[in-house]
Amino acid sequence: MRPSGRNLSEMRAVSIETGITKHAEGSCMIRIGDTHVLCTATIEDRVPPFIKGSGLGWVTAEYGMLPRSTTSRMRREATAGKQGGRTVEIQRLIGRSLRAGVDRVALGERQITVDCDVIQADGGTRCAAITGGWVALKLAVQKLIKTGAVTSDPLTDPVAAVSCGLYAGQAVLDLDYPEDSEAGVDGNFIMTQSGKLIEVQMSAEGATFNRDQMNQLMDLAEKGVADLAAAQLAAVNA
Amino acid sequence: MRPSGRNLSEMRAVSIETGITKHAEGSCMIRIGDTHVLCTATIEDRVPPFIKGSGLGWVTAEYGMLPRSTTSRMRREATAGKQGGRTVEIQRLIGRSLRAGVDRVALGERQITVDCDVIQADGGTRCAAITGGWVALKLAVQKLIKTGAVTSDPLTDPVAAVSCGLYAGQAVLDLDYPEDSEAGVDGNFIMTQSGKLIEVQMSAEGATFNRDQMNQLMDLAEKGVADLAAAQLAAVNA
Amino acid sequence: MRPSGRNLSEMRAVSIETGITKHAEGSCMIRIGDTHVLCTATIEDRVPPFIKGSGLGWVTAEYGMLPRSTTSRMRREATAGKQGGRTVEIQRLIGRSLRAGVDRVALGERQITVDCDVIQADGGTRCAAITGGWVALKLAVQKLIKTGAVTSDPLTDPVAAVSCGLYAGQAVLDLDYPEDSEAGVDGNFIMTQSGKLIEVQMSAEGATFNRDQMNQLMDLAEKGVADLAAAQLAAVNA
Amino acid sequence: MRPSGRNLSEMRAVSIETGITKHAEGSCMIRIGDTHVLCTATIEDRVPPFIKGSGLGWVTAEYGMLPRSTTSRMRREATAGKQGGRTVEIQRLIGRSLRAGVDRVALGERQITVDCDVIQADGGTRCAAITGGWVALKLAVQKLIKTGAVTSDPLTDPVAAVSCGLYAGQAVLDLDYPEDSEAGVDGNFIMTQSGKLIEVQMSAEGATFNRDQMNQLMDLAEKGVADLAAAQLAAVNA
Amino acid sequence: MRPSGRNLSEMRAVSIETGITKHAEGSCMIRIGDTHVLCTATIEDRVPPFIKGSGLGWVTAEYGMLPRSTTSRMRREATAGKQGGRTVEIQRLIGRSLRAGVDRVALGERQITVDCDVIQADGGTRCAAITGGWVALKLAVQKLIKTGAVTSDPLTDPVAAVSCGLYAGQAVLDLDYPEDSEAGVDGNFIMTQSGKLIEVQMSAEGATFNRDQMNQLMDLAEKGVADLAAAQLAAVNA
Amino acid sequence: MRPSGRNLSEMRAVSIETGITKHAEGSCMIRIGDTHVLCTATIEDRVPPFIKGSGLGWVTAEYGMLPRSTTSRMRREATAGKQGGRTVEIQRLIGRSLRAGVDRVALGERQITVDCDVIQADGGTRCAAITGGWVALKLAVQKLIKTGAVTSDPLTDPVAAVSCGLYAGQAVLDLDYPEDSEAGVDGNFIMTQSGKLIEVQMSAEGATFNRDQMNQLMDLAEKGVADLAAAQLAAVNA
């Protein structure tokens, strides 16, 4: 029943390739089916003004899509002169989600910027960005631990994200683009491997949902995040 | 235990005053405690290019805060040269939420723009904007029905929104600013009077939550939306 | 002969309601007929660089119109990405006018920003903004005097503004929108209660004027400002 | 008593050199003392949307300052990414003033854009721009008359502008930069050669004025405009 | 003598991997040593206004760098609100160079946009972009030929680019970043496989050069372009 | 054969008038035929952050065109909200070229900004800007030497620029606009009087060139630069 032939609770194939760029302190290419996102983490000594002197660390994120990551070419945001509303909304979500999984005391007063650039899009880019972004972040933190700059690991519980939605009346896991563009209800679920919830966003466009359906989507999401967290740990421990 | 002395499941005082500006097709000032938002609805014959000729209507929203609606003065976005990320995120949410409660076939090929401008902020401005925005929208649609331009009411089930969160470890309804700035978890719940869910956004900053807590917040939200919907209907039928 | 039935030298009804927003140091809603402007004053300790260390105070103003304050909806300037020429011109006028009525030595090295936001427009918004802006400014200064931060009142002579013009060949006081859009010549007159002139702007579009007409408009303006100043004092002393 | 040694009612030396650039339909370099402004007029067949089909013409203006036209270098507005408030205010004034002296029916449905670029500034640039702008405009219109595109002269009464102010307590004509930066009150007076008033802007900064002083400034302005109009006619008839 | 140990006339390793993204009509990842650029070509039916109806085709290019493609993180241009001067200069060069190698009559009235996004930078990104851009362009054109939309190949002579410079007093081929940042003179040479010159840019910073040196750099460039063209043909014929 | 009737190796008439604006430390109007560029040099004590404390000086340039310097009116870049790609490319070239001819140690830690504003364009504006810019720069430096702020002349070898191209199959010197718009190949050659090369940019649009043609253009350029350098020295020594 799904265009891809997947089962209702089946994720797309997941791969996470680390060490993609030599300059970044942490980097990976995450591929969730045909959605490919390059994630890099940059460590900087400065922090935003509002936490200067607090001893706390900060994690922030930026998101972009290459012009031809999509079916038809999108206008380059640098040419348009600003980031669009969707971009801003997504990068705020990525930053919040990653931050919620960080022990900011343990990180110490430094900032890590996670850049997520979509190379190829096929639905679920923001979830892939969060999941891959955590890997890049973890790799950067491992360097800080190795040099002794950080002594206690601030990232002990992986953060991952997956989208679920109601497609053709059924709750399905990990929407791809053909499903996403048809689904009347979809949601993004950001959790830790240990099952803690960080962010839940369910949204209806041209439809509504009820609490039963919400619970079905939550159940699927828990399954998906478990799979993703395993892939994350495999990648960072490789 | 709440700074305001309210019970855990107690809303702030709600008032909705209609007919605030003479030019708009629909308008109201919604006051949820000390949060005051002026909402206006503007009917236009044009629709966005992607639905031209479809016979379907469109509802969109814009959001702004007056510079001194807040404790300390905010920079005017027109001076800054762009809308900030938070503004963009909120106005997209308002538009999506109102649209989900509209029968776009019944509305016919026209656009209604709902402007929500915060006159005074004390927490929960986006929820007040959605709730008041629905009233302005309904009043505008009533004019279309009166003139016969629309023959079947496209707005039969009020859409309202309320925020809930975990404050000092407890689930509380309708966060005001002192609570909102302390809460590690908060959520915005957009529903119809009949209990249909339109959008759920739960977000942790410096904390996490579990499904039990999520359900408690949902229960509170259902109570809050019922109160708000009653106030909406009273206002539009006055 | 006037669309509103007013006499040639008759102002519209004037009301000034103070204490409109709880956050601002001074605020009022001024209503001149159907023109409604919300004015707030914000005290800040910083001053512009060019007077730093001078001991002198500064007063500046910003002006905006809500999108549906007008007959048809105006584009939000924050969305357009910049303030339009008319906005810039008006807010510079408000700032200059208010500043000319302030003893900047007595104010001391601090800045007060007056925000004037048009809620509903029906002609004469810049004059209403100056008149209401002075009230907000005075209320903020009264707080500084009460706390002893300012010891000598820097605002002893109210500043008010009114527009006059040639409508259907006659000099008329306080143009409303239907008159303003027809008048070939109009002017804005900013004065103090004691009759000192601060700014006079007379402008012809599709017509010219002579010195006799200029003097008639000045005479009307003096009458109008006297009425406005009385309303200002009543409001701040209430 | 004046820094330049001029009498109270003495203009600076005025020269208007026409035919400065080969591409423009009309052009001149106007020099009022050390204030030098290059003015060009461009004829275009299109008109702004709001008069399309009306048969009426339009005149508009733009104003700029070269970065080193001033004592210390100003930032180039193209680099800053926008025109400043002062620029916008001035170019709107130039456009309005020139338009008020044009018979828009006789001009016919076309637009003339007058560009005024300050090569060297020493006070009074906006007045020089209006005065020189009229010359460029007139030269362009003469071409239209010569080709028969326009049959009745739409520019029969020269428009000129001069600034006057209160300097060291005295009314003086044609403020130069040292006077302008000291004057507590100054004004710009735009008139036609025949004595019709088009725009009067009097403004106090750190002072006020009364009607007697206003009349003295008006008297001086009439004298100044007579001198300028003679120079304009000499230039266009050369 | 070269930091990399290469001979004076030795290129870095070159690889061109095609079919990188599924959406683009043509795409490749070109790797010149540690410089990696993703190039995509997008076919559109519209052309710029100035050639509409001419029957001629158009090729244009855009260039970007991912924020962490460089040693330290660069600010994202979409966040900065505009493309920097270097970006603009480079993308104009890429467009001009590719266009010079296209038979625009044979291409027919359509536009191909080549996007070049730097994934990892180590000197010579603009040359890699042109060389890889030609491959993406060729692949897109092959599709047009396959469908019969284009009947005569508009791309018969590969266009490639290489940088050469004076490093430590010697002429060297294909500067990498350590060389580029030390070289007092460097140049970009864009040629076709058959030896036709398209663009030559030689530039001194803190040094000068003479015609002998210019000729040495030209000789090296001819060798480099021959190598690159062979790699291009191998890639498109794979 | 040339539209102007000039010989293949004949420059247009060159004149350089110094002391054009009273405020700038150095200024000239350079006229190469009908191309007229006003160049000013501004000395500032600050330097860019990346050389602060190095003891080295800096020279930078900005370039602009007056709206009606061209055949049809160009949009003012300050109105458009940004400098176009061509402008950015040109001003970077001017800055680089002038810098290459400066002994930055001798100049000392200060910045000189050269503004080049095109008053009338007829081809070759960037070359005229470099040539005239050097004169303005030299005049400013002469002031520094006169006051003793600089003790050793940092500008001993004039920098000048000329364009050459292939017009109707022939190599010609100093392209004017009619030639420039027809030439399939053109180049800009920046050299010192003593024959050192600073920048060479040759570019084909709709054509290609070979090394023989390149050498012919170089020969012509050497002749042109010799003429220009003589005019530069005459101007600065006048």
From TrEMBL, chains A, B, C, D, E, F:
Q: What is its EC number?
A: 2.7.7.56
Pfam families from the xrefs?
Answer: RNase_PH, RNase_PH_C
Keyword list, A-Z: Nucleotidyltransferase, RNA-binding, rRNA processing, Transferase, tRNA processing, tRNA-binding
- Kindly list the positions annotated as binding phosphate: R86, G124, T125, R126
| Enzyme class, broadest EC rank | transferase
Q: Which GO terms describe its biological process?
A: rRNA 3'-end processing; rRNA catabolic process; tRNA processing
Can you give the residue ranges of the Exoribonuclease phosphorolytic domain? 10-140, 157-224
SUPFAM superfamilies attached to this UniProt entry:
Ribonuclease PH domain 2-like, Ribosomal protein S5 domain 2-like
Which reaction equations make up its catalytic activity?
Answer: tRNA(n+1) + phosphate = tRNA(n) + a ribonucleoside 5'-diphosphate
The molecular function terms in GO held by this entry are:
3'-5'-RNA exonuclease activity; tRNA binding; tRNA nucleotidyltransferase activity
Q: Which family does it belong to?
A: Belongs to the RNase PH family.
Task: Describe, as the record does, how this protein assembles with itself and its partners.
Answer: Homohexameric ring arranged as a trimer of dimers.
Question: What functional role does this protein have?
Answer: Phosphorolytic 3'-5' exoribonuclease that plays an important role in tRNA 3'-end maturation. Removes nucleotide residues following the 3'-CCA terminus of tRNAs; can also add nucleotides to the ends of RNA molecules by using nucleoside diphosphates as substrates, but this may not be physiologically important. Probably plays a role in initiation of 16S rRNA degradation (leading to ribosome degradation) during starvation.
Please give the name of this protein.
Ribonuclease PH
Organism in which the protein naturally occurs: Pelagivirga sediminicola
**Lineage summary:** Bacteria, Pseudomonadati, Pseudomonadota, Alphaproteobacteria, Rhodobacterales
Q: What is the gene name?
A: rph
